[in-house]
## 1
Amino acid sequence: MALTIVTGSDNAGHGHKSALKELLENDPRVGKVIDVGVAGREDNELYPNIAVAAAEKVAAGEADRALLVCGTGLGVAIAANKVSGIRAVTAHDLYSVQRSVLSNNAQVLCMGERVIGLELAKELVKVWLDLEFDPESSSAAKVHAICAYDGSLDK
Ligand code: RB5
């Protein structure tokens, strides 16, 4: 089934966010893209507010995943992970992107515009769209333990 994906960034990540949003909007694996800002480089909304708004949509079941960009990809991941039920990672390489879903069932991928080139980011996002967590895998008990800790088991 086509994915609903939330995109978001602060002004430091707006360039990559816009390009990746366009990529998602043109990918047949994506049914809907919900952008939670920022609207442009001159928009100074703080990254924690953007990241939490995106993560809350995923936690509420309004979206399957979120793709967040800031300068480093670190702040947005820290903020998104404060939302119960959210597993957000910063990943700029193929293996980490793959394992974020296959091992950790992460719903939120975070990248840093000051860290990764746009073309590599695009390729990683294309791979990310095909990844699916296997609830029968040996990783399931570990993800279950995370959810038990943050009280999101029934979400
Ligand atoms: C710029 O504000 C920078 O601190 C931010 O984009 C992000 O990298 C924080 O983690």
Note: The chain has one domain: 3-150.
## 2
Amino acid sequence: MKPLARLRLGINIDHVATVRNARGGALPDPLRAALLAEAAGADGITAHLREDRRHIRDADIEALMAGISVPLNFECAATDEMQAIALRHKPHAICLVPEKREERTTEGGLDVAGDATRLAGFIAPLRDAGCRVSMFIGHEAGQIEASAKIGAAVVELHTGRYCDLIAGGETGAACAELEALRLGAIRAHALGLEVHMGHGLDFETASDVAVFPEVAELNIGHFLIGEAVFRGLGPAIEEMRRRIDAARATAKA
Ligand code: PXP
């Protein structure tokens, strides 16, 4: 039994842009938040350029690409417009997410199994450009297998349902969902996919998934940006780092 590899922590800065856009000015600046996150130990910065530009805008992606030293994980829908933007910037990573205009946040996973032919064609030029392509999916076996089949390098398993169940006090259903996430991670890893997890994670729920040896990266945004109001962004990220490292230290490969 050896200690698990260090878990990477990606910080999603979308909601710094949400606050900025609420006033229509330039503050708070998402790049400043990204640089602070880097200094606090983030291994990567995640930003979701939504089709409606409700938080991150095109100029933010340009500023992040030019300004940060850690890898950028560019989240986007699988549309021609986003593919062209991704190919222009060639970020380290591209995470494909489903997008509906009426949703408040990314509500479910991508239907890779139901759209495999189109998605295989969609990701081919991104891979050729040297980007690490990730599929944001649920833990269902069919979605994981389809992601491997179309040549994705990574799957990010959607933890939103688990976090909602915990928040709602539905302990039994939450335990079942956590187990499904664990089995999903094992299945994806066995297929040669790098496994990430994200959405809705806080200190406790992030620790719950940090113990899975197959998980290489967590992407966390909303909770930490909210926590930053109370303790500052750097200390919030440092505390998350401590919590996930401590959880991981209790688990063995
Ligand atoms: N991972 C993916 C693929 C996402 O779409 C999001 C939300 O944009 C996150 C992680 C971060 O979720 P949260 O902001 O709830 O921590």
Note: The mean pLDDT is 96.
